[in-house]
Design goal:
This protein has about 325 residues and is α/β, with parallel strands linked by helices. It has 2 domains: about 130 residues, Toll/interleukin-1 receptor homology (TIR) domain (Rossmann fold); about 150 residues, no CATH class. Helices cover about 45% and strands about 5% of the residues. The strands form 2 sheets. Strands 2-1-3-4-5 form a 5-stranded parallel β-sheet, with helices on both faces. Strand 6 and strand 7 form a beta hairpin.
Length: about 325
């Protein structure tokens, strides 16, 4: 059975912030259990957690401006006792938008929390300490002032194929979504050994290198704050009835309607697929609207089902 270092308990409204924390933990070699990564659609989260609960070494309970969601309350009541009984750490984590005086459940009030509203002590280091028991470096006793805020953690730009993802990272960080979309196609077509202007085959997407797919998706999700990315598109595709590696025209059209790759215009009764010139390159677009050019450079419907299948196999 797959083992995890920490269970991330959170309100679904705080998911983008929690996903970013989870990605930082992964960069540090810590394996988090997160519902959207490890809970297969159509199955009970309770059953899934019951299978894993005795293998997970710690729990982090996130509190943001949205407070506790109803499913999170149930989750806490059902599973926190298991961590307590096993003498595992249960860590309250205050997200950057948490209220000034957050209302914590009684059983969390006596526990040391991690506060992402502060720069010092550095919260990610504190969270890792809570999970692993390994204390980060401390301020020398003769140092009168706190250290400067640490530089943001560098992005992991790993590639199995020697692809340089620096430009893609810089474009996404600058919110230049259109050029980032084009760059995504360019690095992906290069990763499968083809040139600009070539098209993807179904087999190439079904076997796309996991390290590269993870890097590309992580950058999109991070810099769009969870609004864009392949993993975001995968969840939408599955929620409208899509399946892994299988093309269903009805699901594909519903997906297109959802992310507005299909729209009604003029006298048309049915929606029609948009041209690239009609793509909305900002976050006012629906969730999952980007990236898109990769899919236009192949059999579009087959492309999304193939890539969704690969995302699952790559644990994304």
């Amino acid at each position: 059975m797959e083992e995890f270092d920490v269970f991330l308990c959170h309100n679904s409204k705080d998911k983008p912030a929690v996903v970013e924390v989870a990605q930082h933990l992964q960069h540090k070699g810590i394996k988090p259990w997160l519902d959207i990564w490890h809970l297969r659609p159509g199955f009970s989260w309770q059953d899934s957690l019951e299978e894993q609960i005795n293998q997970i070494r710690a729990a982090a309970v996130f509190v943001g401006n949205s407070g506790f969601g109803p499913w999170q309350d149930q989750e806490i009541k059902a599973f926190i006792r298991a961590f307590v009984n096993r003498k595992c750490p249960v860590i309250p984590v205050l997200l950057p938008d948490a209220p000034q005086e957050p209302k914590l459940p009684v059983f969390l009030q006596g526990l040391m929390w991690v506060d992402f509203r502060l720069q010092y002590p550095e919260p990610m280091g504190q969270l890792i300490w809570g999970i692993t028991g390994k204390k980060p470096g401390t301020t020398p006793i003769n140092q009168p002032t706190p250290p400067k805020a640490l530089e943001p953690e560098k992005d992991d730009l790993a590639s199995e194929k020697g692809i340089d993802y620096t430009r893609l990272r810089d474009l996404l960080a600058a919110k230049n979504w259109k050029e980032a979309d084009k760059e995504t196609y360019l690095v992906m077509i290069k990763a499968v050994g083809k040139k600009n202007g070539d098209w993807f085959t179904e087999d190439e997407l079904l076997n796309f290198p996991c390290t590269d797919l993870r890097t590309i998706d992580r950058l999109w999700v991070k810099y769009s704050n969870g609004h864009f990315g392949f993993s975001v598109q995968k969840e939408i595709y599955l929620n409208v009835g899509g399946d892994f590696g299988k093309y269903y025209e009805e699901a594909w059209e519903m997906f297109g309607d959802h992310v507005e790759w299909r729209v009604k215009s003029g006298w048309r009764v049915k929606s029609s697929w948009i041209l690239y010139s009609k793509v909305t390159f900002d976050t006012s677009s629906p969730k999952g609207h980007l990236p898109i050019l990769v899919f236009m450079k192949g059999k579009v419907g087959v492309g999304i089902s193939s890539l969704a299948s690969r995302l699952v196999k790559c644990n994304l």
